[in-house]
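Worked example 3 (structure in, sequence out).
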């Protein structure tokens, strides 16, 4: 019996090695949990084009938007663990278990991390009529205003939502969320004065900031953004330790052979060093990262720790 088990185990290992050795032999699909033309889609396409060169096979983008990425994540979890279905996922890898009721999968258990690809800070932007120019002034106004200051979010559980609730937690404010279906409607209402602020992604807000239609108060990242060099970070403006960014990385179904994950990681790292890719990501408002599968997994765990506390303290209930 033991001999049969050893033979079986050896056969499985040999088969796995053979599959990895010939990988990839056909196009690799990358699922995007957002609509075509959006920021995540454009990021994925910028990376996928050069990644295909390194893999020696085409990459095919498949958009599966909805339910704050859980539709796409659940789909990828159920695909064969053969390296031919990947996903560009993000902060929801860390937050889904806290935000979604009856989630039929565990992102950290059921997905294999390949590499953190890119990060991008958000920016607090306010309607120009709001009498606050700095973070301390915004905090003071929020605490003394006869009505709650309203912040818009692109979606329940989006980075902007969590950024605002982290601000509430650390500043002792009670900014009130107004959820929208997408960032554009929230930005339009901010410009029209229907809401007071958003914690928006910088690429979406930058032109409106430059035109004066909205005013930037501070960025959420640990360093000032290259596109907004005169805008301080929230941490340097008064909330020491404040830091939250939008981040995205490549994942595959759990159980994907280690050799295939290693190949995908190596080719992703090469892609993220390519000058044309770096230039494209910078224009989209992203900073390229690139790390090992183990480092990416550790990053997701740390984010789950930090953001889980924010979500619990905010009293956000799974939906």
């Amino acid at each position: 019996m033991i001999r049969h088990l050893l033979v079986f185990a050896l056969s499985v290992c040999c088969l796995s090695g053979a599959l990895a050795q010939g990988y990839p032999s056909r196009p690799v699909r990358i699922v995007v949990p957002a609509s075509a033309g959006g920021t995540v889609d454009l990021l994925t396409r910028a990376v996928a084009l050069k990644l295909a060169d390194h893999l020696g096979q085409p990459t095919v983008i498949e958009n599966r938007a909805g339910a704050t990425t859980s539709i796409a994540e659940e789909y990828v979890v159920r695909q064969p663990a053969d390296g031919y279905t990947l996903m560009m996922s993000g902060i929801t890898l860390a937050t889904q278990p806290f935000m979604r009721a009856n989630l039929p999968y565990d992102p950290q258990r059921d997905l294999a991390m390949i590499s953190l690809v890119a990060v991008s800070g958000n920016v607090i932007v306010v309607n120009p009529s709001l009498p606050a120019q700095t973070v301390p002034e915004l905090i003071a106004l929020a605490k003394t205003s006869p009505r709650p200051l309203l912040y818009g979010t692109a979606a329940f559980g989006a980075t902007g939502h969590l950024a605002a609730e982290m601000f509430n937690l650390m500043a002792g404010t009670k900014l009130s969320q107004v959820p929208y279906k997408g960032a554009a409607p929230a930005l339009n209402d901010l410009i029209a004065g229907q809401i007071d602020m958003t914690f928006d992604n910088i690429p979406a807000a930058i032109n409106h900031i430059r035109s004066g239609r909205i005013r930037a108060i501070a960025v959420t990242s640990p360093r000032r953004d290259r596109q907004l060099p005169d805008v301080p970070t929230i941490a340097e403006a008064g909330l020491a330790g404040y830091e939250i960014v939008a981040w995205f990385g490549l994942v595959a179904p759990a159980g994907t052979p280690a050799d295939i994950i290693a190949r995908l990681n190596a080719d992703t790292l090469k892609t993220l060093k390519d000058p044309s890719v770096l230039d494209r990501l910078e224009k989209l408002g992203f900073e390229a990262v690139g790390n090992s599968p183990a480092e990416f997994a550790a990053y997701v765990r740390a984010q789950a720790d930090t953001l889980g506390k924010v979500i619990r303290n905010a009293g956000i209930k799974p939906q």
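Notes: The longest strand covers residues 111-126. The first helix runs from residue 2 to 21.
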